[in-house]
Write a structure and sequence with these properties.
Elements (H helix, E strand, L loop, with lengths): L11 H6 L3 H10 L11 H8 L2 H9 L3 H12 L6 H9 L5 H16 L3 E2 L6 E2 L1 H7 L15 H4 L5 H10 L8 H12 L2 H9 L3 H10 L5 E3 L6 H8 L4 E4 L2 E3 L2 H7 L17 E4 L2 H25 L15 H11 L3 H13 L3 E3 L7 E3 L1 H8 L2 H14 L29 H13 L5 E3 L1 H11 L3 E3 L2 E3 L17 H20 L2 E2 L2 E2 L1 H7 L34 H15 L11 E3 L3 E4 L5 H10 L1 E4 L4 E4 L2 H9 L4 H11 L6 H13 L4 E3 L3 E4 L3 H9 L9 E4 L2 E4 L3 H10 L5 E2 L34 H19 L22 H14 L3 E6 L5 E12 L2 E6 L4 E6 L3 E6 L6
Parallel strand pairs: 18-22
Antiparallel strand pairs: 1-2, 3-5, 4-5, 6-9, 7-8, 10-11, 12-13, 14-15, 15-17, 16-17, 18-19, 19-21, 20-21, 23-24, 23-27, 24-25, 25-26
């Protein structure tokens, strides 16, 4: 229902009352804090919409032009007409782009309940006006100063009359009319041109320096002639000793009526910086996706038997982060990204034991069993939704405490929105084109120019003078969104969501963007790849719900599957004791080869090197020489080189010839000459060996130390059990107890779903009906109860009125106090009264309910027009 169907609203509550359910739903969707909790009626909703915290949050989510429109209304008359607002935004000469965009901006402000009233009486809500209007303590973002009326309010009447006379106006009877005469002079274009035409050139220079703000200046007790000329005619007015201000009316004349130096009705165009073929983009992104999987696997494999210790304050130490970076062959910031990604995806956590350490979770083993594309989709989905931000690792929090990877304090609530918006901008570009980071950054700064902090707002880098509110000291929040944009572009490329800076096909599916791509049609990007005005519904993809995001991740995995290389079942053995894997290996082959050989280099192909130590590691794991020969012959496309066969046989021949057990420890061997050689070796002195029998040596060291010592001397001992059997040494995979992935920390209340919206609107409407429905005046009363005041009647009168309403079928208005003591007003249609209870259809709750009569404070009949 449009406002044209109703009389002009006298308050925001009346304006909201005139809205239809669709309009109310749009308001609650854009400002979800208004229904946390659900208001009892529209009056309470309007009150909540005008609170400082809610208005600051709403202003922060305005784009630059809509915010400029609100700023212009803050310096306009209250109320202002649409034509006055258009003049402030477009100036005397008009601006076609401003004229075209202004209706959408005003509609956006109305939708968010920041502006109410018809086009002839536009009103900015009081809190927004206080935040954006100029004052000596709070300079306006427009750079405009106070009005003549405001500045002269405390000026002596004699001084005002002097200014009026010097300006060439007739004297008036009082200060108010004198201020009005000055205002009329300064707003008359012809008279102002004539007055300024007589001004000295250096006086005009002073005005030029103040015209775009800040409008305040300092003067001495004896001003110079150029300043005296301006002061005498009211073109500059004193506000305090030594301080003068340029009145708003004078500044607007000098600005040709414009409130802003440069209105920005159209967002910066996101121009492509480079174009690539679809195959190049998708294959590059797929290669990065495969590398991401390999990196996460390598990280958690390195921590398989228990990772670094958890700091007392939580998180990973700087030393352990450096070690992790070396192990991954990555920089420390990138290592922090991989660690945080594994943690966010639920693959990594602390074990919670006394000696608390990080380790893989049971979910990691399940993740390893999934197909590669599905494993990537899980990582990408976790990254897209996470509020934990690896980019801040290494910085400091508000208390100057260091921020460590996996530690507290890394959540940045704006991160998911920024990631989503950056990818949406990429989705709006022509097919397979990549923008420059600075262009994306400029676009997002246009869409979110404000920063909120402590109930205040500030705009970094804006012309028009200082706009930061008092108490704001800047800090990381001023530049956080800019850094989030750059981190998003970098991380999306690293993770394989983008390829060469352009959004890949599987990245588009992850975002939930519809196909075909923007280049195939004139879709969101429009002709030439230019994104439309952001109020255009196609220019902004809404974030997906959790269920929708899961479906989108599955679709992304399906698109990625054919792009990932097929795992191989073979390697190429070479004569220099190396094996080359020309691609990813199947898991059983990769696991076995990882035990039998050491990784020497990675890349498109992985090179493994066989050493005596690696072969012994395989023998310790229970493999025999014949097993290793058969394994290599089966999985090599080249013949097994003779040096490798000799290496395996030589290590196997010596492996287990010595047996180490627990005495504290002992060594036994059938070859007593070999034992004599060991005792004679000076390197064995630290083991404190002594002979117990021709084939047995005892040691004071424990078995593990004895094993390591003999291996360091070049022998290949084997551990044995108490029964004399060889112990098979398999790595013990340390796992944490089941852990859930960290939940994102939302930025304010979540956007309500359609079901909650419908229920909230129904409850608000019903509560409003109960609070505003006209009541009949009871006998002895001169007026019905005031709005919000519960009706008060005696128990006998309440019972009689209820019984009468049952007979007539009429609705009545009651006051009700529930078991928790909360009072409310309700409109009910009684159906039955018995046993101290009334059963009625409750219009407020839209259901049949039963109420104890002793909890009803009073009852009143509704006016005839409400029956």
């Amino acid at each position: 229902m449009s406002t044209a169907d109703h009389p002009a609203p006298r308050s925001l509550a009346e304006a909201l009352r005139a809205r239809d359910d669709h309009s109310l739903a749009a308001l609650l969707r854009s400002r979800p804090d208004l229904i946390t909790p659900v208001p009892t009626d529209l009056t309470q909703l309007a009150t909540r919409a005008g609170t400082r915290a809610s208005v600051v949050r709403a202003l922060e989510r305005l784009d630059r032009f809509t915010l400029q429109t609100a700023e212009a209304l803050a310096v306009a008359a209250d109320p202002a007409s649409y034509d006055e607002l258009l003049g402030l935004m477009g100036g005397d000469d008009g601006d076609p782009a401003v004229a075209a965009a202004l209706p959408g901006a005003v509609a956006g402000l109305r939708e968010q309940a920041l502006v109410w009233g018809g086009d002839d009486r536009l009103r900015l809500v009081r809190t927004a006006r206080e935040l954006l209007a100029p004052s000596p303590q709070h300079p306006s973002p427009t750079g405009l100063g106070p009005t003549v009326q405001e500045v002269t309010a405390g000026m002596s009447p004699g001084r005002i009359q002097e200014i009026v006379g010097t300006a060439g106006l007739a004297s008036t009877h009082d200060a108010v009319s004198a201020a009005a005469a000055l205002t009329a002079l300064f707003t008359d274009r012809a008279q102002m041109d004539a007055l300024l035409g007589r001004a000295p050139a250096d006086s005009l220079d002073v005005l030029d320096r103040l015209v775009w703000g800040p409008p305040y200046g300092q003067v001495t007790a004896d001003p110079a002639a150029r300043l005296r000329w301006l002061l005498d005619r009211g073109l500059l007015l004193p506000t305090a000793p030594g301080t003068v201000v340029l009145p708003r009316e004078v500044a607007l004349h000098l600005r040709a009526g414009r409130a802003h130096r440069a209105p920005e009705p159209v967002p910066p165009v996101v121009e492509p910086a480079g174009t690539h073929t679809p195959a190049v983009v998708d294959s590059t992104a797929a290669g990065q996706a495969y590398t991401a999987l390999a990196t996460v696997e390598e990280l958690l494999k390195d921590w398989d038997e228990g990772g670094p210790a958890v700091l007392r304050a939580g998180g990973l130490s700087v030393r352990d982060l450096k070690r992790t970076a070396v192990a991954l062959d990555a920089s420390e910031p990138m290592a922090a990204f991989w660690v945080e990604l594994a943690y966010t995806a639920g693959l990594l956590a602390s074990d919670g034991e006394a000696d608390e350490r990080y380790a893989a979770t049971p979910a990691y083993d399940e993740w390893l069993e999934q197909p590669p594309a599905e494993r990537w989709a899980r990582l990408a989905e976790a990254w897209l939704l996470a509020t934990r931000t690896a980019g801040v690792v290494g910085g400091r929090d508000a208390k100057e405490r260091p921020l460590s990877a996996l530690g507290p304090g890394l959540d940045r609530s704006a991160a998911p929105e920024v990631r989503h918006r950056v990818l949406t901008l990429l989705a709006g570009l022509p097919q397979d084109t990549a923008p420059h980071a600075d262009v994306v950054l400029a676009r997002l700064r246009w869409e979110r120019p404000l920063r909120a902090r402590g109930g205040t707002v500030s705009r970094p880098g804006e012309s028009g003078g200082a706009v930061a509110r008092p108490g704001e000291t800047g800090g990381e929040d001023d530049d956080l969104r800019s850094r989030l944009v750059r981190w998003t572009l970098s991380e999306a490329e690293t993770l394989g969501v983008t390829g060469r800076g352009a959004l890949s096909a599987h990245g588009r599916a992850l975002l939930g963007a519809p196909g075909p791509r923007a280049a195939d049609t004139d879709g969101p990007a429009g002709p030439g790849g230019r994104l439309p005005f952001p109020h255009h519904p196609a220019s902004r993809l809404e974030p997906l719900s959790a269920a929708e995001q899961t479906v989108a991740a599955a679709a992304a995995a399906r698109l990625l599957t054919p792009l990932l290389p097929e795992p191989l079942d073979h390697v190429l053995l070479q004569a220099d004791l190396t094996a080359v894997a020309p691609g990813p290996l199947r898991r059983p082959l990769a696991d076995t080869l990882g035990v039998l050989a050491d990784v020497e280099s990675k890349g498109g192909a992985t090179v493994y090197r066989f050493t005596p130590g690696s072969v012994r590691r395989a023998l310790d794991a229970g493999r025999t020489a014949s097993d290793l020969h058969a394994f290599l012959a089966t999985h090599s496309r080249t013949p097994v080189p003779q040096p490798l066969a000799y290496l395996i046989d030589d290590v196997a021949r010596r492996h287990g010839h010595l047996r180490v057990g627990a005495a504290s420890a002992y060594v036994r061997c059938d070859d007593d000459a070999l034992l004599n050689e060991i005792i004679a070796d000076k390197r064995a002195a630290a083991l404190r060996l002594r002979r117990l029998a021709p084939t047995v040596l005892a040691a004071e060291a424990d078995p593990a130390t004895l094993l390591e010592g003999l291996r360091a001397m070049g022998y290949a001992p084997a551990a044995e059990s108490a029964e004399g059997d060889v112990l098979i040494a398999r790595a013990h995979a340390h796992r944490t107890p089941p852990r859930t992935a960290p939940e994102p920390v939302p930025e304010g209340p979540p956007v309500p779903d359609p079901t909650l919206l419908a229920a909230a609107i129904r409850a608000i409407r019903a509560g409003d009906l109960a609070s505003t429905a006209p009541r009949k005046v009871s006998a002895g009363d001169t007026a019905p109860p005031a709005g919000g005041e519960l009706p008060r009647t005696g128990s006998a009168e309440t019972l009689a009125t209820m019984q009468a309403a049952v007979l007539t079928g009429e609705a009545v208005w009651i006051g009700y106090v529930n078991a928790e003591g909360a009072a409310s007003q309700r409109v009910i249609a009684p159906v039955r009264v018995e046993g101290g209870f009334v059963t009625a259809y409750d219009h407020t709750a839209d259901e049949v309910r039963t109420y104890p009569l002793h909890r009803i404070t009073g009852v009143a009949e509704l006016a005839d027009e409400q029956q």
